[in-house]
Write a structure and sequence with these properties.
single chain, alpha/beta
């Protein structure tokens, strides 16, 4: 029987690349998108995947996703979906994404979904992969809420791993820390981006090794810089 993976935010970017690469590895893939239109388009391109509409801002959608999964064992769970809104706190203007929605999608939903899926004992095994960012370590001034959300998710992973160590659970929690990736979310931002395909491949390799922290791309250099010059990384990023 094929192993099963759940990927949130699978219709584009890193999530789409992960869905394609896990599908190629023989996994049964369940993937979500936030709107019926995005899911319909993804289903047309990749009908082999079990596509589900799930607006992570809505508790009812999270409950419906868990009901759809039911008692099915999940061998991999990837909390990938994320959004980022630039804000100038001293010159507020119109925002496409509210603070509440940004926090629900980036932080609250992964935590609530983890709690709900843990209630299904058949799901409580395998690799649970949380996608964070180098901005959780070296934040930038233009996206304070996003950076804070990812930092919170990073701390959640560490605490969850602590409980796993105490209980002896077979779950392995992997935090995948990403650099700037060339996706719709990062259009017009920064240089030296890696492709979603490269990011996905490195995430998968790290997860298969069961790494608690997966350093993707340039994040390896960020962690080395942080080890030798703790404030240096923040000083480099905070002006962006």
């Amino acid at each position: 029987m094929a192993k099963t993976i759940l990927i949130t935010g699978g219709t584009r970017g890193i999530g789409r690349a992960l869905a394609e690469q896990y599908l190629a590895r023989g996994f049964a893939v369940i993937a979500t998108g936030s709107t019926p239109r995005s899911v319909d388009q993804a289903r047309t391109a990749l009908p082999q995947i079990d596509w589900q509409v799930c607006d992570l801002r809505e508790q009812a959608d999270l409950a419906a996703l868990c009901q759809h999964i039911g008692r099915r064992a999940l061998d991999r769970v990837v909390h990938n979906a994320g959004v980022q809104q630039a804000r100038n706190w001293f010159s507020p203007g119109g925002e496409a994404i509210s603070i509440e929605d940004e926090t629900r999608i980036n932080f609250t939903a992964p935590v609530l979904l983890t709690r709900a899926l843990f209630d299904n004992v058949h799901s409580a095994h395998g690799r649970w992969i949380f996608i964070t960012s180098g901005l959780a370590i070296a934040p930038k001034q233009s996206a304070a809420v996003y950076c804070a959300n990812k930092a919170a998710l990073r701390v959640f992973c560490k605490s969850l791993n602590g409980q796993i160590a105490v209980t002896g659970s077979p779950i392995k929690v992997c935090e995948a820390i990403l650099p700037l990736v060339d996706t719709a979310m990062t259009q017009g931002r920064g240089r030296g981006k890696i492709s979603p395909e490269q990011a996905a491949a490195e995430i998968i390799r790290g997860a298969e090794r069961g790494l608690a922290e997966i350093y993707v791309g340039k994040v390896r250099w960020l962690m080395r810089l942080r080890a030798f010059w703790p404030n240096g990384a923040e000083n480099l990023m905070i002006r962006h």
